[in-house]
Amino acid sequence: MSRGSGKGLSLKDKLDGNELDLSLCDLNEVPVRELAALPKATVLDLSCNNLISLPSDFCSLMHLVKLDLSKNRLQQLPLDFGRLVNLQHLDLLNNRLVTLPVSFAQLKNLKWLDLKDNPLDPVLAKVAGDCLDEKQCKQAAVKVLQHMKAIQSEQDQQRQRKLQAEREMEKKREAEQRAKEALERELRKREKAEEKERRRREYDAQKAAKQEMEKKTKKETVHTRKPASSSRPPQPPRHKPSWSRSVLRVLLFVLLCILCTLAACKLTELQHQPLCVSVNTLYEDVVAALQNHKTLQNMLQHNSHQ
Fold first, then answer.
1. What segment(s) does the record annotate as region Disordered (predicted)?
2. pLDDT tens for residues 11-39?
């Protein structure tokens, strides 16, 4: 293991029982892999080096019981430093620490702690107190653990409150979303109903307009027909048939019957019957009379001309 890197020199040569002394090695980083290969090294001394920070995998060295990191330049500890649950003795004297990670509260087996000569937060410095003797260092471990547990509890409560607030916010958003969707459905339903009502009114208006047009057309037709009927010439009053027309019709019917009888007696075999003989005789007499009457008229007309 060379100076500065911790590589090249076997750590087994430094191991004395369960103690591994890497102090005053001018280390800039911790050889975590080589340390993990030595689970028997439960006591680790890294004091008086040039360590500015610890790698995150340093917290995998859960076999450590006693750890000395004093007189380095550590500005902070890994966030999961609390994984070193078997740690009982921790020396952080003369570093540049201001706060401790919240996971520090998980070091339930910690019995001894030294935080002197660090630019600690005033509250943390007051809780830690001095570590001038064994009793004070033990009290520092107890008080710091209680303080970090309180911080952890408060942070857990804050996380719970934040989680609860996020859940309530999520529920509120869901409720608002449901309300929004319900409102949108109601608006769509209302718009649909309004559209139906609008179409119904349009239909009723069209129907009324059509009926009004039909009525107007009928009125115009009636007004057009009335002048035509009034422009007709007055019809002469119809008179009831007089009695003279009735007599004339009877005479014509009688004449027709006589002509039919005469034709039957002249043209058929009935002419030898007694009735037809009488009819034919009467017909010849009438004809002779008419001829005589015509001859007389001619004579009178001749005399008048003379």
1. 151-242
2. 888 899 999 999 999 999 999 999 999 99
